[in-house]
TrEMBL record:
InterPro entries: HAD-like_sf, HAD-SF_hydro_IA, HAD_sf, PGP-like_dom2. It comes from the Bacteria. Pfam families: Hydrolase. Gene3D superfamilies: HAD superfamily/HAD-like, Putative phosphatase, domain 2. This is Phosphorylated carbohydrates phosphatase. It comes from Corynebacterium pseudopelargi. GO terms for molecular function: hydrolase activity. Its EC number is 3.1.3.-.
Length: 226
């Protein structure tokens, strides 16, 4: 039995990946050359610094002022989050049930605090005992730092945590921290070895989380998936 749950945020709890894609394409165009869809896919779950460097390299320009591009991107993302952010199906009810049952929960997101707080507030900050952002640890995902820190704040070992992640970087980070991972990548071929497949467990990444309001559900699903 798990002692706590740690959630990735973008693409897992909130349907924000299309917004991040639009923001990344906009930044790449402002640098001089729109990213290809294949290159944009490499930015999913990555840090802002990585994304900015990739955009600059693709455009053939030097990244002289990362702070400028951070302001450019984050202002755009805050606007989209305030106007267009939505939850994944059933997430609101599920989180309320977990909270009521006393399951400790945390968010571990590579998104920097400046942008993440808007999405955390949208989800309900009071539902989580801890939230950790990519700019609050020495290294973001795929390094395990963010999951080590989230587990520490919850007062449990990472190995006692059940983690939900949609990106390869996030799955690798959680696995490196020795957590149990349920992966819900958009494409099944992007599932990282060692992570349990959301599709295999419950039939798809569009699973309505309203049906899964207790840890026993996931323990049973993982046991049957072995």
């Amino acid at each position: 039995m798990f002692s706590a749950m740690i959630w990735d945020m973008d693409g897992t709890l909130v349907d924000s990946e299309p917004l991040w894609a639009r923001g990344t394409f906009a930044m790449s165009e402002a640098m001089g050359k729109r990213l290809t869809p294949e290159l944009q896919a490499q930015t999913v779950g990555a840090s802002f610094s990585y994304t900015a460097r990739l955009c600059a390299e693709h455009a053939g320009v030097e990244l002289f002022d990362e702070a400028y591009w951070r302001r450019f991107a984050f202002e755009n993302m805050r606007k989209m989050f305030s106007e267009e952010l939505t939850l994944r199906p059933g997430v609101a009810t599920m989180l309320q049930r977990f909270k009521a049952s006393g399951v400790p929960m945390a968010i571990a997101t590579n998104t920097e605090r400046e942008v993440a707080d808007a999405a955390i507030a949208f989800l309900g900050a009071e539902l989580f005992q801890a939230t950790v952002c990519g700019d609050e640890v020495p290294q973001g995902k795929p390094a395990p730092d963010i999951y080590h820190r989230a587990a520490e704040l919850l007062g449990v070992a990472p190995s006692q945590c059940l983690v939900f992640e949609d990106s390869q970087a996030g799955m690798r980070a959680a696995l490196a921290a020795k957590a149990t991972v349920v992966g819900l990548p958009e494409r099944e071929e992007d599932l990282v070895q060692g992570a349990a497949s959301m599709r295999a467990l419950v039939g798809g990444i569009d699973f309505d989380f309203d049906q899964a309001g207790d840890l026993a559900f996931w323990c049973d699903a993982l046991q049957m998936g072995d």
